[in-house]
Amino acid sequence: MQENNISRAKAQKPIVIEVAGEPLGVVVPQAEGFRFLAVKLPAFAIDGQHFPSVEKAHLAVSQAVRDHGTDIA
Hints:
Blueprint: H1 6-11, E1 15-19, E2 22-30, E3 33-38, E4 50-51, H2 54-68
Antiparallel strand pairs: 1-2, 2-3, 3-4
């Protein structure tokens, strides 16, 4: 099936967030920043949170991994 609105498809493309090379979730662009969606257990503590930038989301995921006590690498 082909996307009718190509610009909409590009605008909603998720960005993978990795810590130590391990993908832990994605951020989805929204009107006022980015929403984080977790895909691995250490990141579920911040699932659904909104961030002003991808960098802020990455920092929050890294902190969640540290707080969870998980050794990713």
